[in-house]
């Protein structure tokens, strides 16, 4: 043993420690209150009879079928068939309703004339469209 | 201990007396070791109590290929760590003899106890490895098992720790000579 190892051994011996009587009693009392665990303490589930597995399988199948049936019978949201008759082929052009103020019309007569021309053009176009589509 | 296997078997069967006999020769040594790893005497005592209770409770998991002392020290190291993790006071904070439980238990001598120097310069695990090697005469394999480290880690760190302690011893000696 070399010098350092010897010194370490000697110095460890100079640490004077002893378990006191009180700690000794405490430990022994604690040990008596402890039940050592053993490998065989694992509680295994009890074996089930064969009929149990059949019954649970059948129940599972019945439940699965019931779920499938419920899903299939659930009413689908009805989508009305698209009928051509319900859709009017004529486009109704709604002319914008503009509330004109009389006094401002007096001051803006060229504009008013312009509006009347435009409305006349609009009527002509409407008439032509009606003719084109055979109404 | 010649009848250790018989005591282990009896303790496994539930005999607390057999277990108490089994660990009687280890208790003082374990307490001394735990004192180097705990911040107070009471903590070391608690760690010892927990160690023995855990060892008894889980004796069924003891592998006879291990030395029983190695297994006990492994449990002790874990319990000391657990108690230290719950504590606010760290060993490094214990600077005087009144608060340091290890210093209180050291028999007075002319030179500083080398384990005090070791605790100052080594990390926890390396200190434990040194303790198990030089205070408990454990083999490298047993130390590795007790610490949960590889054998190479243990060898390398024991060697480094020896060098660090040598340096510490030399510097202490130089100080002593300088101050007479």
Report on this structure.
The complex is a heterodimer of chains A (135) and B (180). By secondary structure, chain A is an all-alpha fold. Chain A has helices at residues 3-13, 21-32, 50-73, 102-107, 109-132. Chain B has two domains: 1-87, RNA polymerase sigma factor, region 2, helix turn helix motif (Rna Polymerase Sigma Factor, Chain: A, Orthogonal Bundle); 106-180, Arc Repressor Mutant, subunit A. Chain B has helices at 4-12, 16-35, 41-57, 68-86, 101-104, 114-121, 124-134, 140-147, 151-178. By secondary structure, chain B is mainly α. The chains are: A mainly alpha (135), B mainly alpha (180). The interface between A and B is medium-sized, with 27 and 39 residues.
Average pLDDT for all residues of chain A: 78
Pattern of helices and strands of chain A: HHHHH
- CATH architecture descriptor text of the largest domain in chain B: Orthogonal Bundle
Radius of gyration of chain B from CA coordinates:
18 Å
* Amount of helix of chain A: 55-70%
Head-to-tail CA distance between termini of chain A: 123 Å
| Low-confidence residue ranges of chain B | none
- Structurally, the number of domains of chain B stands at 2
The main pleated sheet of chain A reads as: none
β-strand percent of chain B reads: under 5%
Q: For the CA atoms, what is the radius of gyration of chain A?
A: 51 Å
What is the CATH superfamily of the largest domain in chain B?
RNA polymerase sigma factor, region 2, helix turn helix motif
What would the CATH topology of the largest domain in chain B be?
Rna Polymerase Sigma Factor, Chain: A
Q: Indicate the structural class of chain A.
A: mainly alpha
> Total strand count of chain B, please?
0
Class derived from helix and strand content of chain B: mainly alpha
Oligomer: heterodimer
Order of helix and strand elements from N to C terminus of chain B: HHHHHHHHH
What is the highest CATH level, the class of the largest domain in chain B?
Answer: Mainly Alpha
């Amino acid at each position: 043993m070399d010098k350092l190892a010897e010194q370490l051994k000697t110095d460890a011996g100079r640490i004077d420690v002893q378990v006191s009587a009180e700690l000794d009693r405490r430990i022994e009392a604690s040990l008596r209150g402890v039940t050592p665990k053993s490998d065989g303490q694992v509680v295994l589930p009890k074996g089930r009879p064969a009929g149990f597995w059949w019954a649970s399988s059948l129940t599972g199948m019945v439940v699965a079928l019931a779920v499938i049936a419920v899903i299939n019978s659930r009413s689908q949201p009805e989508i009305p068939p698209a009928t051509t008759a319900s859709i009017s082929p004529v486009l109704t052009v709604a002319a914008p309703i503009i509330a004109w103020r009389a006094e401002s019309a007096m001051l803006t007569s060229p504009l008013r004339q312009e509006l009347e021309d435009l409305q006349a053009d609009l009527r002509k176009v409407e008439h032509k469209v009606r003719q084109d589509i055979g109404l | 201990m010649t009848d250790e296997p018989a005591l282990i078997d009896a303790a496994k069967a539930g005999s607390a007396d057999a277990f108490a006999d089994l660990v009687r020769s280890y208790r003082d040594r374990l307490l001394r070791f735990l004192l180097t790893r705990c911040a107070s005497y009471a903590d070391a005592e608690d760690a010892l109590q927990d160690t023995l209770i855990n060892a008894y409770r889980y004796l069924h998991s003891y592998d006879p290929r291990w030395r029983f002392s190695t297994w006990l020290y492994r449990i002790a190291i874990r319990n000391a760590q657990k108690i230290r993790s719950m504590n606010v006071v760290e060993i490094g904070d214990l600077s005087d003899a009144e608060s340091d439980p290890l210093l209180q238990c050291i028999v007075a001598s002319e030179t500083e106890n080398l384990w005090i120097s070791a605790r100052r310069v080594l990390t926890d695990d390396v200190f434990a490895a040194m303790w198990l090697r030089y205070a408990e005469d454990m083999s490298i394999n047993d130390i590795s098992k007790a610490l949960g480290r590889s054998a190479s880690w243990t060898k390398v760190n024991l060697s480094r720790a020896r060098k660090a302690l040598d340096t510490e011893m030399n510097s202490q000696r130089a100080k002593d000579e300088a101050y007479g």
